[in-house]
Amino acid sequence: MPMPTIKHIRAYTVRGGGADYHDQGDGHWIDGQISTPMSKYPEYRMTRKSFGLNVLGTLVVEVEASDGTTGFAVTTAGEIGAFIVEKHLARFVEGQRVTDIERIWDQMFHATLFYGRKGVVLNTISGVDLALWDLLGKIRQEPVHAMLGGPVRDELTFYATGARPDLAKQMGFIGGKMPLKHGPAEGDAGLEKNLAQLADMRERVGNDFWLMFDCWMSLDVNYATRLAQGAREFDLKWIEEALPPDDYWGYAELKRNVPTGMLVNTGEHEATRWGFRMLMEMECCDVIQPDVGWCGGVTELIKISALADAHNKLVVPHGSSVYSYHFVVTRHNSPFAEFLMMAPEADEVVPMFNPLLLDEPVPENGRMRTSRLDAPGFGVRLNPESQLARPYEH
Ligand SMILES: C[C@H](O)[C@H](O)CC(=O)C(=O)O
Ligand SMILES: [Mg+2]
Questions:
Q1: Within a domain: residue 356?
Q2: Nearest-CA neighbor of 61 among 119, 111, 14, 17?
Q3: Residue 143: other Cβ atoms inside 10 A
Q4: Host domain of residue 317
Q5: How many domains does the chain have?
Q6: Which residue in 47, 249, 263, 291 has a CA-CA distance of 20 to 30 Å to 139?
Q7: pLDDT by residue (tens digit) across 281-334?
Q8: 165 and 136 within one domain
Q9: Where is the domain boundary, 120, 142, 164?
Q10: Is 173 in the same domain as 292?
């Protein structure tokens, strides 16, 4: 039977959680006081929504094959992403065979170079790429992890990101990553408060549990070095995204400065093999954290991960739910995964892309059997109750 071709690609937007997990209601821990690159402006310090963290919303990309099979994926790109898919990328997708993912990726990337390279354009390309992998899996009746070479372990192990590592420990996770609250603009008093929060959490969780700080691009080398040195006595496992993503030189300096054994992790807002090549060749970090919905999709993550392997770096993708689980389970240099606690108080496990997907698996006791990922494609369905809009058509 000839391989089906792609008949249609459609782009939708949806608000309220989903792939734009920052798009939450008021009072959610993820919108509490968190140190950001905007924290130097007091008027944008207390919530991240105040400076527009949730402006994009979720993009849903749907691809339909000539045999009627559909695949889809979600990412953070909203209406801008929908425009790019419908008005620009569709031409590289429609009419191609469903197996032509590599060529479609190459054409999408090179045709958008003049306004793309990173950020929302790469989020959008990632969304299309993930939808194509989902479609291929559904046509082949295989999970994406099988198409990537198959699992290398029987279960995934998770650390939790959220405001309550103490509760995450009770829920069976191997570690807890807290958002850093206070940035350099709050001076030494803020630094002391950050360290006091870590000390308090170490007291609550005891010694046999990882604790990490997520600094969300907000520090400078001097502050990050002092934070890392102060955090040593509380056994901070890693300091994450301490600096703006373009400051490769700063990361290299920070990595030289941190106490022996403390890891420097980054890459959540980096994209493509070329961006990660900079991080690796400049010795910026120990662990890279690409988001498969932002870095270029699975097609690009395969390349990033191979590059990391050759540099003896671990790849622990940022969030991204099933899209990263199917990858992590197939790679030796991805020994554990992140789970983002999306309950408003970080006090229970809820699906990360809640309420957009159905059948989205979640860790139980901090673990997930690989068999939970055994459905075709990425194994998830769009919740039919989602209020999808299609702002552009081609
Ligand atoms: C909690 C962080 O500020 C951010 O919202 C998520 C993140 O960076 C991560 O999960 O890592
Ligand atoms: Mg992070």
A1: yes
A2: 14
A3: 23
A4: 147-375
A5: 2
A6: 291
A7: 999 999 999 999 999 999 999 999 999 999 999 999 999 999 999 999 999 999
A8: no
A9: 142
A10: yes
Element (H, E) at 79: helix 78-84
Note whether 154 and 138 are same-domain residues. no
Q: Does any domain span residue 50?
A: no
Q: Which ligand is nearest to the CA of 340?
A: 1
Catalytic residue flag (residue 110): no
Domain end residue (candidates: 142, 157, 183)? 142
Question: For residue 138, what are the CA distances in angstroms to 205, 320, 328, 373?
Answer: 43, 20, 20, 13
Regarding whether 181 and 245 lie in a shared domain, the answer is: yes
Share the mean pLDDT of the chain: 98
**Among 318, 326, 332, 394, which one carries the catalytic annotation?**
318
SS (H, E, C) 164-190: CHHHHHHCCCCEEEEECCCCHHHHHHH
Looking up tokens 């994926």 gives 73
For the segment 178-190, the average pLDDT, to the nearest whole number, is: 98
Alpha carbons 172 and 367: distance in angstroms, whole number: 8
Cα of 364 from ligand 2 centre, angstroms: 22
338 in helix, strand or coil? strand
Q: How far is the CA of 56 from the centre of ligand 2 (A)?
A: 18
Whether residue 391 lies inside any domain: the answer is no
Phi and psi, residue 123, nearest 5°: -60, -45
Tokens 């999970």 sit on residue: 143
What interhelical angle do 272-281 and 248-257 show, nearest 10?
A: 40
Measured from the CA of 22, which atom of ligand 1 is nearest?
Answer: 5
Tally of helices (H runs) and strands (E runs) in the chain: 12, 14
Residue corresponding to tokens 């990173």: 118
What's the chain's length in residues?
A: 394
Looking at residue 1, its pLDDT comes to 74
